[in-house]
Amino acid sequence: MTASTQQANHIEPTELEIDEQIYDLYDEYCHSEMTRREFLDRASTIAVVGASGLAMAQALLPRYASAQMISFTDKRIKATYIDYDSPGGTSGEMRGYLVQPTSDGPHPAVLVIHENRGLNPYIEDVARRFAAEGFLALAPDGLSPVGGYPGNDDDGKVLQKSLDQTKLKQDMQNSAALVKSHSASTGKLGAVGFCWGGGTVNHLAVTMGSDLSAGVPYYGAAAKTDAVANIKASLMIQSAEDDKRINAMWPDFETALKAANIDYERHLYPNTRHGFHNNSTPRYNEEAAKLSWERTVSFFKDRLA
Question: CB 3.0-4.6 Å disulfide test: which of 111, 117, 207, 269 passes with 153?
Fold first, then answer.
């Protein structure tokens, strides 16, 4: 087994220059109980050069329609919503977005895990991107037992925070088992997740053992170090350079991965922030997102072969 820490080539900042204070406030907004109104009100009081703090804050809010990369009518894929049992989860039932390639199968399976706000359009689009690459993709909606993604991230964030996190993670594990055993699956399973979903990929790696072949956590919370030895999956850890909260967990996580001889690699992308893959907001870094995506697809094609 091998361990490596790698860095992408130098990446230029995004064209839209947003003040550091606004980015920090947005990160707090995304990961706390702060409402959109509070976020915008606080941003409006921040003095910045070149534009108002309020204008910068508004620019950071997601624009999902313009961010779509793969249409649900794309001829390479077939997308549908499915309902399935989820024993031990929030309600015992789950709903997810299943996207299959139209090419002959079976196909390696990938679980696509959303951020801390439910199954929003960005994550659905990521599932379609995987199917277009030849994977059977399932993006579960952790909010489906309480009515589903509510159509906006603010309400979704509040809903997800209100759930029992142990049961919510069980819903993700049940979803992983479902797509792994699907008739269109080869039986090889990978998992990718973003933010909360990245942390959940690490959680699944320690709980699913050999049932998970590969995991790609994007800027996700590290697994508990005393459980890292349970990991059997290969990991590709995608990290943003400017992500203090998540990166502070890395040294202990890396020590545990090395001690347990886990097959892993880490990519740290310069001039990027938490959320750099999400192309619906200016946190998006096109070069880093493209490079990380190419690495992820290649990693899954290799490990799920």
Answer: 117
The label of the residue with tokens 């919503």 reads 81
What gap in Å lies between CA 27 and CA 170, rounded to an integer? 27
Residue pLDDT tens, the chain, 305 long: 433 333 333 223 333 577 888 878 877 777 777 887 887 788 788 877 666 777 777 777 777 777 799 998 999 999 999 999 999 999 999 999 999 999 999 999 999 999 999 999 999 999 999 999 999 999 999 999 999 999 888 899 899 999 999 999 999 999 999 999 999 999 999 999 999 999 999 999 999 999 999 999 999 999 999 999 999 999 999 999 999 999 999 999 999 999 999 999 999 999 999 999 999 988 899 999 999 999 999 999 999 99
DSSP string over 205-259: HHHHGGG--EEEEES-PPPPGGGGGG--SEEEEEEEEE-HHHHTTHHHHHHHHHH
Backbone phi, psi, residue 76, to 5°: -80, -10
Q: Supply the pTM of this predicted model.
A: 0.86
**Counting every residue, how long is the chain?**
305
Asked whether the beta carbons of 305 and 234 are under 8 A apart, the reply is: no
Is the Cα torsion angle 265, 270, 275, 278 positive or negative in sign?
negative
Measure the CA–CA gap between 289 and 219, rounded to whole angstroms.
12
Query: How many CB atoms sit inside 10 A of residue 51's CB?
Result: 14
Dihedrals phi, psi of 275, to nearest 5 degrees: 95, 15
Choosing among 3.40.50.1820, 2.40.30.10, 1.25.40.10, 3.60.21.10, the CATH entry for 3-8+69-303 is 3.40.50.1820
List the domain boundaries for the chain. 3-8+69-303
One-letter amino acid at 161 equals K
